[in-house]
Amino acid sequence: MAEEIYKCCFCEKEMRSGAEVYGLGVKLKEGLEYPGGIGRRTTVHLPVQGRELECIATADGSQAKMEGWDIIFMVCSEKCGKSLKGLLEKEEDFFEEIM
Hints:
By secondary structure, the chain is an alpha+beta fold.
């Protein structure tokens, strides 16, 4: 079976399965959702930044959903996590809270 390779959603560095990764959870503004991507990888378009970022829409009953997060972004480092958080904070129409 081939090893899955993931990419940091911020810098696009490849991350092999089993490598240490970091997650950044966000709560969407009321009325926004990603029904087609629940529990799977999907893409978020950021109009202010003009970027598309890969993420995972949390599934009902998952630990992330129970903690209040609607979307999880996977990043390769704390540095990318901080940079991504700054980028997401500029998208005020979409995100209510960013972890």
